Structures are given as C-alpha cells and as structure tokens.
User: What shape does this take?
Amino acid sequence: MFIFGASGDLTRRLLLPALYNLVVEKLLDPGFAIVGVDHVEHTEADFRDYLNSTVPAQIAGHVNAPDMLDGAAWTWLVRRCGYVAGDFGDPATYRALAARLEESRAEHGHANAVFYLAVAPRFFGAVVEQLGAAGLLSEEDGSFRRIVIEKPFGTDVDSAHELDAILLREAGERQIYRIDHFLGKETVQNVMALRFGNGIFEPIWSREYIDHIQITAAETVTVENRGKFYDATGALRDMVPNHMFQLLAMTAMEPPNSFAADAVRTEKAKVIEAIRRHSPAEAARWSVRGQYTAGQIGSRAVGDFVSEPHVAPDSRTETYVALKCMVDNWRWSGVPFFIRTGKALSVRRTEIAIQFKRAPSVLFRDTPTGALEPNLLIIHVQPNEGISLRFAAKVPGRKVRLSKVDMDFRYSDYFRAEPSTGYETLIFDCLIGDATLFQRADNIEAGWGAVQSLIDATGQGLCDLHPYVAGSRGPEAADALIGRDGYSWLPLSGRP
Ligand code: BG6
Assistant: This one.
C-alpha cells in the first residue's frame, strides 16, 4: 500500500491506527507492506521513528485504554513501513515506486498495489496522471492496481465530472475506490440489514405508511484547525452530497438484486438521482444556512466562527445547513426528507428518524388521550449505536390514557465491538477488491447534482445566513423551515 501524504494528519490519525487494528484481527497478509510517499525528506528510519512517536498515542486514544496497545502487532506493522521522499509532480518519484513494485514482484511473485491518496484534493488528478504515465496503473501482468481517493471529490458537479474524467482516462472504474467514511460505520451498513434482513419493515417502507424522514448529523466540534479548508467548503459541501446522501440512499434505495458492488451502487445512484432538482430560488426557499457565533458547548467556551484561525473575518460560509429533499420516485412520492447538519451544536448525534403516519384516533376520541402520537423508528448512527421504536402504550390505571414508550436496541448490549476508527472495513474491502462500500462516479455526480442549485443560489446571494449561538440546536430559521410543512425537528436532547 503506497500512502501519498504519509506525513499528514489522516495517515497518523486514522490510516495507521486502522491498519494496526487489522493486524490485531490478523486480517493482513504476511507479505503486506506500506510505502509512505511524501515530499518531507525522511529516511526510512526517520519515517518509522516518526510513526513510533505519533501513532501509538492515536491508537491508544481509539481503543480507549493506553495499556491495551498490542506491542507485537504494532512492531509487525511498523517494520513493514518503508518510505519514498519525492514531489508528487516529479516523474522520478514514480520511478522510485516502480522500483519498489519490482522488488515486491521478485519477492512475492506479484506486484499488487493500492495507491492511497491521503493528500489535499488539488493533488488527486495530478497524482493519478503521474501514476498512469509511469505505467503503474496497468494490470496487464495480472497484479491488481487500485486507487483510493478521499473526499472532497470535487466541489460541484463540473469539478467532480472533470476529476472523474481524469481518473477514468488513467484507470478503469473498478480500480477506483472513492471513500465516504460514513459507509465504514457499522450502523450505516446495518440499515441494509435492518431493511432487507427482516420481514416486517419492508412492507411498510413507503409513502403509504411513512409520513416523513429526518436525517441529522449534529456535531459539537467547531472547525478547530481546519479553518482554511472549511471556510472554502462549508457545511453543505462538506457533509450533504456525500455523508448525508449516503444515509438517505441507504434508507430510501430499492432492494438491490444482490449485495454485489454494482447492484448496490446502482440502486443508490438511482435514488440520489431521484432527488428533486430545484431552481436556485426554490433551493433557497427549501433550505437554511447558518453560522455559529460565540457561545458555550458544555463547559467549553467557543468564539465566533469568523474569529477561528484561517477563517476570513467577513466569511459568509455556513457551518450549519438544513434542507428539505423530495425523492421523486414511486416509493417516496410526497414524503419529505428533512436533512440537517452543523458544527458547534449542543450535542454530537447522527441519526435517521423515520416517522410513520398516525393511526386514526377515532377509538380514543372520548378518552383524555387526545391526538395519537406517530410511531417513530430511529436508527442511532452515533454515538450509542442502536435502533429504537416509539409506540403508544396504555398508562396503567382505570382511565384509558396512552403514553409514548421506546423499545431500545443498543449494539453494546448485544455485541462486543472491536476497536475501530471506521476505516478498517474500507481498507480491508479495498484490499480484497470489494467496492460495495465505495462511491462510483455516478453516485458522486448524482450527489453534487442534487445540491448544485443550492450552491448556485448561495453564489447568487439568494440565501440568507442565519447566526446561531454555539451550543444551541441551530438557527431558529431551521425550525421555521420544517414548521412550514407542519412538523418539528426531533429534540437534540434526550436519548441517546
Ligand atoms: C468529515 C468532515 O468528512 O466528516 C468533517 O469533513 C466531519 O467536517 C466528519 O466532522 C464527521 O465524521 P464523523 O465520523 O466524526 O461523524
């Protein structure tokens, strides 16, 4: 595995800890090796020293118990780490990689390679072109050559399309693994198990029974040290066409013919393509953009977004976005999907809430119950992963009164989860050639297509920017947005 950007944040924080977890689970081949590629002038020994001094603390952080570091597993991994210092634009760098692959072929009889681009997006196209020019993407000798690309994949429809065009000139679609790390999350994968592994949900999974759906990804973190990236990106681009739409697609897709990668990805692309394309004016009407101002999150005081490092003092970038999406296909016609995500909110919570239509209250009209509450199925993506179902139960006593109760499944009550960064499954799947959990070109372009009118509306100054206090539930305008259809957001407080 060649990791471009070997001295970067992602490699240290997530990739090496994930690879370590795969070593602990004995899932890596004895011949597995890493070659870090970066412009930093390290020798191989320097690189290993750097990893030794930075990664174990990250691993300890992930497994939540510093003394749990498995020294033998870590040593096994770090011994297999080599390094090539070089500029990403210099053909000599790629000749050095080719030489490494020849060594591998001599030793193992094959030269399989994964090129992991843990680099800034501006290098994606250039690195892939260089790999292609050096012949490193050719699989003619029977070895596999795969490319892993991180997000953000483009910044709008056109740039994503251009990047795809470069990639697909140099490699086949099945060699390209576009990462959306939400798909590495167990609970996200569990949406398919819930829907298609049970007989009771699918028959009621449609506009006949479902009233509306709310998808939330609330974060307490601010932009921290990512001001430069975030100010140029904003909450919409950072979260919606990728992570939020993956949650939507898992929830709304038709059953695929099989779990084969293309069968699943075809159904996901279809549902994202069915999201209604608005005019910029309509997109502005059905969305809310917010930006956090100074406040308190728990015991932590937070400043204004515009005072964060590397954020322009007059920035109009949104740190919160809410929108209403309509999925115009047979199953979902008329069912609104409300999406909200933001930083510096009161809690960290990602969930998919499916609200069913109310039962007629005719039988309870003469009781103190009043209107019946709707049933609610919530998939708790994180934290406290699980699923809960809300229904009405009779309050004990002589009078007929109903109260809402929750039936709760928590992963941790049933399963012992292995320590995970969320990247283990994705890296492992790439190594075994299973692209099911990766984004195909059409998935990515469909995601951008569905938000393009909102990007345009923002560019044309059609969208207001609503301030919200850090540590709150977001701008009040978001309550008004969902309120226009007669609904309200589920509270961010309470379970989980
Ligand atoms: C990343 C975004 O892709 O996902 C971040 O760039 C965001 O801004 C993160 O914080 C959320 O991921 P997770 O796994 O922490 O929910």
Remarks:
- The chain has 14 helices and 17 strands.
- The pocket of 6-O-phosphono-beta-D-glucopyranose is lined by residues 151, 219, 238, 350, 422 (CB under 6 Å).
